[in-house]
Amino acid sequence: MVRGLQAVLLVLLLAGCGAGDSGGGEEKPLPPASTATPADDLSAKAEQIAGYCRARFHDEFAGVGIDPANPRRLVVYRLSSARLDHAVRHRFGDVALLFRTATATERDLDELTRRVLADRRLWQQQGIDVQGVGPDFVRGTVLVQTPDVDLARSKLPARYGKRIEVQEADIVPAPGSGSG
User: Fold this and answer.
1) Partners of 100 in the beta sheet?
2) 59 and 105 in contact (C-beta within 8 Å)?
């Protein structure tokens, strides 16, 4: 009996949720439920911080990412800079932040990445199929992916310096993609 009464009350409560005057004489639909997750919000904050740092601290900023040890915290990589740390904490005080010293700026790594990409044809002529290139701001290097690892490790650092890290390519270019 109590269970039946609870069910009737629940039905009456649910039926009454839309009843009553909403002020305009018509029911307004509920706004759609947000599909954003805390990770989405943190990723959006990371993008905002990156944009802010690129605009104001391009000579110090290296990158920003979600802390793998604490997925509710962002890690900002930069050359040692109390000025950047203070500005970011002040502007983005609602986010848990950790600052780490980087060995290269985003700008420097991007420039080196562009140099390697511009030389792809040269490396192809020397038997090195460069299949992927990109900056790694955490380690302060540019990753170069190739199936020709040993040859690339013997030649690329001589041209670009110690910031080049060569690793086995784990991708296969599609036919006609221009890498073969």
Assistant:
1) 77
2) yes
Return d(Cα 28, Cα 88) in angstroms, integer.
Answer: 41
Describe the strand order of the beta sheet including 73-78 as a list of residue ranges: 61-66, 73-78, 96-101
Q: What is the pTM for the complete model shown?
A: 0.70
Q: Is 56 exposed, middle or buried (0-12, 13-18, 19+ CB in 10 A)?
A: middle
CA distance 141 to 24: 61
Dihedral of CA 26/30/32/38: which sign? positive
Task: Please report the sign of the dihedral spanned by the C-alpha atoms of residue 36, residue 40, residue 42, residue 45.
Answer: negative
Angular region, 127: left φ>0, alpha ψ -120 to 50, beta rest? left
Q: pLDDT digits over 85-142, tens only? A: 999 999 999 999 999 999 999 999 999 999 999 999 999 999 999 999 999 999 999 9
CB contact set of 139 (below 8 Å; sequence gap of 6+): 103, 165
pLDDT of 40-80, one tens digit each? Answer: 789 999 999 999 999 999 999 999 999 999 999 999 999 99
Decide if 128 contacts 105 (C-beta within 8 A).
Answer: no
Per DSSP, helices labelled H in 27-172 are: 38-56, 82-91, 106-118, 120-125, 149-160
